[in-house]
């Protein structure tokens, strides 16, 4: 039996700054400053909101442009993620080969996250964003050409090689990792610190839109017009994200820039050694993503468990995004929750429960509890689909709650000259954890059964979160009014 966790505290906004964060610009007009801001909100209202707060969009036109552009281009990016899985499953018929998409990209992504964080601390963050985004766009154009070539070969009775898809997907992942680290480090430079948690909630809405519209559109497009067109839509939607980046002000380093290299990396490692709360935020997320990442299983789930084929894959992936979106829309109270560590621990525990539920549904479907199924949409098991979608929606909602508080902790507790490197590591964790999870899911499904990874993984998450948070008491004691790394 675990020790009861302290209750979530609510109240006024944080009133004290920390770690060298400079005062905010007066809130008398749009914020386009490149100066960081203090977490004190002048005249903060005591009234608690139920729904998401749009104040960050009103306070900073630069943030608004970046947010809108990222949401639109993110829809295309999620389409490509789903389409790559479907492409490789169509070429190989192997869940393990789908899981290897993440596994192959893991080491390059780790290097890119660490190096990208150093680039964000050393150079103009707007320039780093532009160059990394253009690299990702080039990789997507390569996927368009390669998928079209495979389709032409299929018409003649052949197939393209699989390995170029891994190469282009890895290049896209590297670019996205650098962009993600840099984009997160930009937020405290274009918003006052008291709006960071609300910006994180808005980012959750953007992610919800991406993950709802992107996979659903991918499933429909793949089933109707084919994979090459699906990849091409991502290339077109990229334009919106790039315009949001172009609209940013210049964001050079505020102090003396440390050139990327071993010295910069050592500084980041030294800071992390003295930041137990930030370290624990990474640990709990790695646990959740390693043992609770079922998305590599979905092509097989749509083919042999629940039925419905590519459309089921799109529906189930979108269900997780609906949960993310709903949690973000109802995120008004986040500005009044101060015990961020407690909130993260509880959210990830709920996440583990939803993962286990999904495994139970897959087990039931494969055992015939919901009747016969087929790979086409007309033979889908509706009860199993509904229950699986409910489990994935719960995963999306709980993961979004965790993400809001983890990202707020990181952005407010770390000083600006470390934000690029800490965000780089954060991006490695956020992107690398799912790839480890894909490998776990693929291996466990191959060795045991399709239902085993989520069913066992969900219970492992619940147990490990209780153990590690009890071992690191400062994480549960973290108070956003006095942010300490």
TrEMBL record:
Keyword Membrane attached: yes
GO molecular function: transmembrane transporter activity
Domain named Major facilitator superfamily (MFS) profile: residues: 233-485
Keywords: Cell membrane, Membrane, Transmembrane, Transmembrane helix, Transport
Signal peptide: none
Keyword Lyase among UniProt keywords: no
Protein topology in the membrane: Multi-pass membrane protein
Principal subcellular localisation of the protein: membrane
Transmembrane domains' residue ranges: 66-89, 95-115, 127-149, 161-179, 200-223, 229-249, 282-305, 311-335, 347-370, 449-468
InterPro entries named among the record's database cross-references: MFS_dom, MFS_trans_sf, TM_effector
Annotated GO CC locations: plasma membrane
Cross-referenced PANTHER family: ENTEROBACTIN EXPORTER ENTS, INTEGRAL MEMBRANE EFFLUX PROTEIN-RELATED
Stated name of the protein: Transmembrane secretion effector
Organism of this sequence: Agrococcus carbonis
Higher taxonomy: Bacteria, Bacillati, Actinomycetota, Actinomycetes, Micrococcales
